[in-house]
Structure formats: C-alpha cells, structure tokens
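> Could you send the DNA-binding transcriptional regulator, XRE-family HTH domain prediction when you get a chance?

Sure thing. Input:
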Amino acid sequence: MSKLKPNIELVIAKKKNEGFKIELNGKKVKCSQTHLAEKLNITKQQFSLWVNGRSFPRLEKAFELAHLLDVKVDELYTFIPEKRNMLDSMKDL
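Output:
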C-alpha cells in the first residue's frame, strides 16, 4: 500500500533556522506549530496529528499550509510507493 510520510516538522525546522516568520494578528511571529495551527484555524492537536502522519489535511488546508511556509505542497510530504512482492509481479505477466 502506498503512503505519505510527513515532512512538515523538517520544513518548519528549516524555516526557523532561516529566521522565517509568519504574520499573525498583525505581528510577525516565529514559525511554530502553535502559530501555524492558529493561522490555519485548527487546533494545535490537529496540527500535531498532521505532523505525525496520523491524520492528513484536506487538500485546501495542505495548500494553505504550503503557502504560509512558502513551499510547494509536495515538500510537506514524501510519497512512498507500494512495494510489490514477486508473486504480485508474476500475476501481472
């Protein structure tokens, strides 16, 4: 089965190291899970589920998060293709 591996935490860490800030309530604040959750109008717990891969954002929220972080949506996740075993491969022949 194919799956997605979240890279959100790595993207946030990289942005923090670059001094990246987001605007929240008219102020520039450090990029954190708490601030991003607030900006996305979701709970901190929901954002944490996204970061840990236990839940995934709806497409609109994924694009909104990517926009906030100034990255492409595909930078937030790594696609891990399905591993097919030899028996499945032989069935296709």
